Amino acid sequence: MMIVVMFTVVFWVFEVGWFMYTYTVLADAANEGVRYAIVHTAGSGCLSNTGGTQTTVANFAALSLHNVSALTTSVTFPDGSCTGSTTSSTALPSRVRVTVSYQYVPYLPQIFTALLTMNTYAEGRMVVQ
C-alpha cells in the first residue's frame, strides 16, 4: 500500500517541478523577446519587426526542450507608438510588451490534471539614442 503512495508523491513532485520549470522558461523567453524588441524595433518600421521578436521567443523556448508549436506570442505597444524618444527629461520613452501563452500538457494522465494555459509577459522601454 505504501509503495503506491510513494510513487504518487514522487510523480506529483516531478509534475510540479516541470510546471515551474516551464513557467520560468516562458518568463525568460518573454524577457528575451523584450530585449530583442527594444534593440531592433526602436525607431521606424517597428510593426514590421514584431515577427523577429516572435521568432526570438520561440527559439529561446525551443532551447529548453519545449514543444513550441503550442506557443503564442504577441508584441504590443501600450503607449500607442513604438518610436521611442530621446533621453530628454520631458519625454517618456515608449513601452513594448511581449506576452507569451502556452498550453501546458502535463505528464500525468488527464484524469488527475487538467490542461492549463500559462500566460506571462515582460515589458520594457525603448530609448532612441
Tell me what the structure shows:
It is built from 2 helices and 3 strands, in the order H-H-E-E-E. With 129 residues, it is an alpha+beta fold. The protein has one domain. It has a 3-stranded antiparallel sheet with strand order 1-2-3, covered by helices on one side. It is elongated, with a radius of gyration of 19 Å. The protein starts with a helix and ends with a strand.
Structural class: alpha+beta
End-to-end span in angstroms?
67 Å
Oligomer: single chain
Q: How large is the radius of gyration? A: 19 Å
Q: What does the largest sheet look like?
A: 3 strands, antiparallel
Query: Can you tell me the residue ranges where pLDDT is under 50 for at least 5 consecutive residues?
Result: none
Element-level helix/strand string: HHEEE
The spatial strand order of the largest sheet comes to: 1-2-3
Strand element count:
3
Number of domains: 1
Q: Which percent bin holds the helix content?
A: 40-55%
Q: What is the structure about, briefly put?
A:
The protein has 129 residues and is α+β, with helices and mostly antiparallel strands.
